[in-house]
Design a protein that fits this description.
The chain is built from 21 helices and 25 strands. The strands form six sheets. Strands 5-8-9-10-11-12-13-14 form an eight-stranded mixed beta sheet, covered by helices on one side. The longest helix has 26 residues. The N terminus is likely disordered.
Length: 699
Amino acid sequence: MNIKLTKISFAIVMMSSGFVMAAGGGGVVVDPGAMQGKHFDVKGKSPSSYTVELQNGLRKTLPFEDKRDFEESKRGFIAAPPYKAIMADAGNVAWDMGSYEFLLQGKDFDSVHPSLQRQAILNMGYGLYEVVPDKIYQVRGFDLSNISFVKTNTGWIVFDPLTSKETARAALELVNEKLGKRPVVAVVYSHSHADHFGGVRGVVEESDVKSGKVKIIAPAGFMDHAVAENVYAGNAMTRRLYFQYGVLLPRSPFGHVDQSIGKNTAAGNLGLIEPTILINEPFEKMTVDGVEMEFQNTPGTEAPAEMNTYFPQFKAFWAAENITGTIHNIYTLRGALVRDALAWSKNINNALYRYGNEAQVMFASHSWPRWGNDRVQEVMRTQRDSYAHLNNEVLHLANNGVTINEVHNVYRQPESLKKQWAAHSYHGSEEHNSRAVINRYLGYWDANPATLIPLSPKDSAPLYVEMMGGSAKIMAKGKELYKQGKYREAMEIVNKLVYAQPNNTAAKDLLADIYEQIGYQKESPSVRNSFLGAAYELRHGMPSGASPKTNGPDMIRAMTTELWLNALAISMDSKKAAGMKFTINLNTPDNGEKFVVGMSNSALTNIKGYQDKNPNLTITVNRSDLEKVMGGQTTFEKLLSEGKTKFEGDRKAFDQLRSTMTTFAPDFELIPGTKAKAPPAKSNKDPFEAPPIANSDGA
């Protein structure tokens, strides 16, 4: 391979091929052969005749005659900056729109679903755009999300300041250069995902927020959900997003082409400044420096804490990430709580009837605006009906006996929705969203006792291989099915062989070929990336090596002490805790918090607001110093030597707790036979350091 690589935000990992690869949303993995249509992988395959036939059929049946999205995505364009790349303060490339230039050649790529290629081209919009004349502007193409600027009497209200300080700063500089310099008077976080608040330090100074000069407005519950959603299973989420976000895939017609709601995620400094105003009511009005706004709280939709905004003066509706012209994830593949498709539909309906009758433009934190009342209502209804149909039809099927293991092969959108681009599942997919609806209401079990306590794949696979007559017969049949274009059938049996024989290189290569063709055929980039990412790991091995810290000081400060204690309980190896029993009183006098931390029955528990009358140990430490432990900047031992913490009682309880702690690393196999044989490097991380927070960009 000949791949130009750069450092990114989440992790730097070493591939078995010897290349340093970028891990985490936004890593810039550039393929010089993309413009020439060369496959980046020496083992990679071109689209098969069956894949080409499928893509050609889609080109004839998809509603390509509807070109309104292209017209709207270009409307209001003012200027693009003279650069395509934005550098991070750390010296790496934070953003590189130029790495996707291959999409603008006017070619049809048979290795990309035609609908996804269309979406990927639409997401190439780059620069400053006017939404409402002389009032509302957006900078698009600087990150996964859009940053919006609303002109006030004296300055700007910034909506959703991107993922990183560097891209947000560049966007503000572009706006001030083209429209005249104005101060930022307020920032609005629409919801609790990182690509909607992480760049705040690029547009405002924290001192101005603390002094009251700048307001930061967010929905109720924002701070809790901005961190909590991604902590408890954060390590597993981080590993799984390698597939959803195509972390190891170069930007190429054969690799990463888009992330559906934007190109990718910026790889700069992620920050967080706590909101000064929380919107608590279902509907709440506010005027900021002459701009009237009504906020609509929509908890439990695309994020646990999220809100839309209506501007009555401008007849403009801000749809946050609730209406973005793509059907979103009800279940996100990196892992998260399953969302409520019905609540999502109802919140869109509320917006439609409250604002839709008079709104003349709808814009959002992703994609492009829609203009004209008829068009606004059309897209709102399309998305409302898509989520409602998904919820209702899946439950209709479930009530007729269709199970979670069948519904993805049964559920279909009605033809009337298929003909509308805003109903296409770019971010989600009909397959994984339909299963999510059943999971939300009925759970993972299909009610067949045989699947209630199944064997692990590594245990069941050898039985299948033996019964199928051994590896030679499976390989022969797998190749036959592959040549017939029956990729899912081939996957079913070859996957069993790979689990049974994880060191069988020929089997892994065949499974990679199968995954690659399935990936080429998928409309959803999350699904495409997952198959292509798995193919890459089957061919070259999974990432290995130590990951640098991902918890910045802003995220640590946002993590409550209770959340940290809960995370410690998850990090604890319960087998090491067998027979331990103690209580520890924890006091943080600078913020007045008190906790009891208890160990019994190999479980670590905590309760806030109490103190045990006879604790084994009492630890007193300021929350400000505890944050340094949580962030890995110091240890309890150092704080003790510096007199910044006090232990009263038997410190054996502390030492026992410390001995049970483990350090998670995203270095476990997702695909058998892909992990390097070398033992993992021993972590020097303090066991009380907070676990890494998973990436929530794009949910």
